[in-house]
TrEMBL record:
Residue ranges that the Swiss-Prot or TrEMBL entry lists as coiled coil: none
Gene: Tifa
Keyword set, alphabetical order: Cytoplasm, Immunity, Innate immunity
Chain ranges of the FHA domain: 49-121
Organism listed in the record: Menura novaehollandiae (superb lyrebird)
Pfam families registered for this protein in UniProt: FHA
InterPro entries in the cross-refs: FHA_dom, SMAD_FHA_dom_sf, TIFA
GO cellular component terms given for this protein: cytoplasm
Localization of this protein: Cytoplasm
Protein name (record): TRAF-interacting protein with FHA domain-containing protein A
Amino acid sequence: MTSFEEAETEETVTCLHMTFYHPCQDEKRMFRCLNFCKREQVRADDTAKFGRDSNICHYNLMDTRVSRIQFSLQFYRKLNTTEYCFEIKNLSKKTKLTVNQTELGYLNKIDLPWKCIICFGDYQILAEIQEGESVDYFETHLHLAEAPILQERCLPSLQPMPENGISSSFCLSQGKSPTEIDENEL
């Protein structure tokens, strides 16, 4: 037998890809402490914490509007299965966290869907889980979005198109209310 044949089987590693966006990211540089485009290993028994406090959080967001600990991600294996998942918990007393359309108050937690959008304040994070088999650790791979994540994901309107061919439904960014437009202004 060759050394190649005797080598241990290589395990694939679960990787959590997270793409961050904030409308003021260029001016305020709140993501300057995040390590983008490089995978980082996190022990399976550690909790990945995101927030402002660098003594507690491994993933620091440099913004006074972010809680000391905004949210955490816990890696776990579902009971009686080989499936690995992440649980997300809101640790902010002041800011609600939404995962897709589910709103989480302080200490609320849910399983992270394999692909979802996490929002709090003006922050948008696209989270995508790449499955693996390793039980000792998982990896995070952070990315920076150039455009709003929510607007990129807007689906075409299913409403009827008016005769002038211009639809009155627009994708709205979070926190903004619709504005009325006179048809003559179009």
